[in-house]
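By way of example, we now present a protein record of this kind:
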Amino acid sequence: MEHYKNEHNVVKAFYNHCIVLSEPKHKKAERTAVVYAGFLSYCRENRFPCSISSIQFHRMFQNILTEEGTEARMVHRNRGDFYLHLQMQF
């Protein structure tokens, strides 16, 4: 359980430092693969150990979006998977 809490905290830190929420009317979106790659870069740059798989990351990230009560969410499209109503910043 402690390991999960530490991983969750790293994902939460990434969310707090690198994600900007947008109004639904602005239709901002990021590919899920780009968000995960950004997370891995964030971990490397901040020297956080990271053994979270893509699937684990997206589950934790989606839980954080839900906990925060945001409009942002993951959607599946013909062109791939996206997070709507958010964008990354570095």
Q: What stands out?
A: The first strand starts at residue 19 and ends at 21. The chain is about 50% helix and 20% strand. The two ends are 30 Å apart (CA to CA). The first helix runs from residue 2 to 18.
